Amino acid sequence: MKINGSFVGAILLALLGALSAPPALGDETSEVGLGTRITSPDGAMVFLLEQDRSTGTLAWSVHRDGRPIVTRGALGLELAGTGVVASKGPVSVVGEQEIATSWKPPYGERSVVEDKCREKTLGIGGGDAGGPEVRLQVRAYDEGVAFRYLLSRAGTFTVASEKTSFPLPADAAAWISRTAQSKIARQSVGRIKGVVERPLTLELAPDLFAALGEAGLVDGSRMKFSKSAGTPLGARLDGPVSCTDTFTSAWRYVRAARSPGALLEGNGFMLNLNEPNRIGDTSWPRPGKVLREVTLTNQGAKACVDYAASHGLQYIMFDAGWYGAENDQRSDASTVTVDPKRSPGPLDLQEVIAYAKKKKTGVILYVNRRALEKQLDQLLPLYQKWGVAGIKFGFVKVGSQQSTKWLHDAIAQCAKHRLMVDVHDEYRMTGVERTLPNSMTAEGVRGDEESPKNEEVLATLFNRCLAGPADQTNCYFASRVNGMGSHASQLAKLVCVYSPWQSVFWYDRPATSPTAGKAGGGVSVLQDVPEIGFLERVPTVWDETRVPDGNPSSHAVVARRSGDVWFVGALNGTKAREFKIPLDFLSPGKKYRLELFSDDPSVATPTQVRVESKVVDSHTVIKHAVAMRGGLAAILTPEPVAAKPAAAPRTAADAVTPKLFKRYRHNEFMKRKAAGPIGLLFLGDSITDWWPRNGKDSWAKFAPHDPADFAVAAMRTEGLLWNITHGELDGLKPKVTVVLIGVNNILQCPDEKPEWVAAGIRKVVATVREKMPETKVLLMAIFPARNPATHPARARIAAVNRLIADLDDGKQVRFLDLGAKFLDDKGNVSKALTRDGLHPNAKGYEIWYQSIQPLLTEMMGN
Question: What is the DSSP string of 369-424?
Fold first, then answer.
């Protein structure tokens, strides 16, 4: 077998240190003697190769900003029957170049990856008879340094082990894990014993963080790190590497930055150490959110497809059991034979795939490595014929050269059949997603299947996530969430942890899927909650990524942009803190609509997530107290520069034609209706919707009347008509219903004529009277909006109010205009009574209460 390492790019170098000043490095062009130096384009990162003049032994070091990270590490490869090479001998420069380019991935954490470095290829040794030609290829990027070994010798030979060492300050902090899915623990470098995973994140000083790892592993043995007492950290291969004629190792790298966030922002570094796209057309690998199908039945699968199609998810995935017991060698993954221990079925997979295709939803199949290893050539064309979108590889073997090569060859073979891949269990990527873009994600992480607490997720974010996409199998409604962190922190994880295929409801199922016969009966049910819109809208790939704050031991803030919309996730560890998040990453001079999702025990929903909204800009700082293991999530959408008409011109029919708006609020109202009696009902938009929150003292005064607020922010007449004609009012008998609607028809639709708005309000009142004949209606005039008094919106509002005033019949319908009470002496909407020139503040709501109370008393007869 021929090992070809031209595939990936450079690694290793030293990281983090804040101790003594580095030795004199000489000028950049010096080659031998004191040392050969390679410096990054910005001058911060330096790789130095020195030679002991008496023994000829080579030692490498890495510095950032003049501070040591790795100091005098050993080099070398042990060849079976030959001994150690690349550890000593004369050094010569056989090639050098400066790379200054960029490239666009088909998807990723950013839309453009900068590839800028200085590179030198060094010849090592004198070319002894029978020995290989040895070269060391070194690259210095602004984000870090990397090197790899290149050997050339005719015939076959075996790399038995690697002698590279990484001497680090003993008191530097390291975040280590023993296996790819084990917990990550913080301890000093000096206390590390045994084998630990890569990447390895380090803190050398409060302003110096580093990471050591491997990039561009294609067809060799995986490297881990090993250390025993009294020895430096060293490279450890998971087995020998057999070679023919040539050997190119994976890159060994040292990344360094002044903060953990800067390390995470530099994830393009590892991609640059891999070969470009090798599969050709990349129009078909499609990122997206995934809903796991847990019942293995037609009914459950179609319920998942329906949910995915209506909630912004792109895929459903069948997990183990659809073709039989995954650990049984007799199970045949070319058949649909449901494991009876998991589900009674029935499951017709091709019927489900056809159903999903009609709803533009992809289907992913889990296949255990036992079936993959024996059936791969048979399965791939078959799955392509079935219309399968991708395969989740389960329990693949990892580490050895044979395992590495088989896996990457299998992913490449999947690409020939337009199948995407998710590799689960102990595998971690080293940048292969650049070369094989159908490699969508990988596990190799302690995900939600293991119920990690927030502090574990933070360690994962700044350690494991440096290795690329992490399939964390995110869950949401499952009861385990409360023990892990919070629902707001679960939202935040979808932004913080990057994965082009993102599982969002790992332990959750639609309510219409079956529950009997072991078919998902114990799995939590998906629910309509106010924050479901975040889960629907959050992307899985990005145009820009920022990590403005964070530490693996305490907290993190990650901001990612998709198009012109920013998403923010903030995770908190074991101590309550006030997050202060400057929004200076927003475009200057633009206004944005902030939707903030936070934990709030007072919110009466199963998830207790509060949703708030306000206008912000690049000068805004989000300040929010977050409890232990809590979180925040946010969406920032550019506000229109000026009011724009609807996409299609409004007509007279629009304001009177019912149209669904925010189904989850409608569902909330249906639940409130069933919860108990309602004596006083409020219908309307945000002015009414926000009364219980922003005017809670005055709202509390309605308590003796059993009040209910069925208003929805941003609602127009057509949205209210849809709600009240779809069950909200059925069976209700409030004594009085207060209606205030129409301002959004005016402000959102500049081309809507006053008489059209008035017709919509008239239809609302008529429908209320029809649905609830016993109720009396208190119709409020539209409140004044926009300053100054000459603003065109004012005249349109006044015209509407004139057109609806005659609905007052003195008995069943009363009309009340409070506009003058909310104006100052100049005719402007009062700043003293409103929060923003439209919505009342606490004083404004008190005035509203005092103004309607006498009329309510009369209408209610008490």
Answer: HHHHHHHHHHHHHHHHHHT--EEEEES---SSHHHHHHHHHHHHHHHHTT-EEEE-
Q: Which residues of the chain have pLDDT under 50?
A: 1-33, 646
Three-class SS string for 357-374? HHCCCEEEEEEEHHHHHH
- What pLDDT is stored for residue 128 in this prediction? 56
* 860 three-class SS: helix
pLDDT at 650: 83
Task: Establish if 617 belongs to a structural domain.
Answer: no
- Reported as half-sphere exposure (CB side, CA atoms, 13 A), residue 749 has a value of 24
Token pair listed for 751: 């081309």
State residue 25's pLDDT score: 34
Shared-domain flag, residues 311 and 447: yes
Whether residues 148 and 295 fall in one domain: no
In the beta sheet, which residues pair with residue 584?
none
Q: Which of 480, 510, 540 is the last residue of a domain?
A: 540
Report CA-CA distances (Å) from 252 to 3, 210, 541, 593, 747: 17, 13, 27, 44, 59
∠ CA 83-88-94, rounded to 5°: 110
The amino acid occupying position 568 is: V
How far apart CA 713 and CA 612 sit, in angstroms, is 11
pLDDT tens-digit map of 449-506:
999 999 999 999 999 999 999 999 999 999 999 999 999 999 999 999 999 999 999 9
- 589 exposure class (CB count in 10 Å sphere: 0-12, 13-18, 19+): exposed
Provide the residue range defining the domain that includes 770. Answer: 654-860
> Rounded CA gap, 562 and 560, in Å?
7
pTM, two decimals, is 0.75
**Which burial class, exposed, middle or buried, applies to 493 when counting CB atoms under 10 A from its CB (0-12, 13-18, 19+)?**
buried
The answer on 481 and 345 residing in a single domain is: yes
| Within a domain: 280 | no
Task: Indicate whether 182 and 299 sit together in one domain.
Answer: no
The torsion angles phi and psi of 433, rounded to 5 degrees, stand at: -65, -20
Of 272, 300, 316, which residue is a domain's last? 272
Q: Helix-strand-coil percent breakdown of the chain, rounded to 5?
A: 25, 30, 45
Beta strands in 521-585 (DSSP E): 524-525, 544-551, 555-562, 565-572, 577-582
**811 Cβ neighbours under 8 A, 6+ residues apart:** 776
**Which residue from 599, 563, 567, 601 is spatially nearest to 581, judged by alpha carbons?**
567
pLDDT at 642: 62
Domain containing residue 521: CATH number: 3.20.20.70
What is the per-residue DSSP string for 718-774?
A: HHHHHHHTTTSSTT---SEEEEE--HHHHHH-TT--HHHHHHHHHHHHHHHHHH-TT
195 plus 138 within the same structural domain? yes
The per-type count for the chain, helices as H runs and strands as E runs, is 20, 42
Distance CA 14, CA 140 (A): 11
Look at residue 18 in the predicted model and tell me its pLDDT: 29
Residue linked to tokens 């989850």: 664
At 130 the pLDDT is 64
Q: Quick check: is 842 in a domain?
A: yes
- The enclosing domain of 146 has a CATH number of 2.70.98.10
How far apart, in whole angstroms, are the C-alpha atoms of residue 31 and residue 29? 6
**451 within a domain of the structure (yes/no):** yes
By the 8 A CB rule, do 288 and 314 touch?
Answer: yes
The residue type of 737 is T
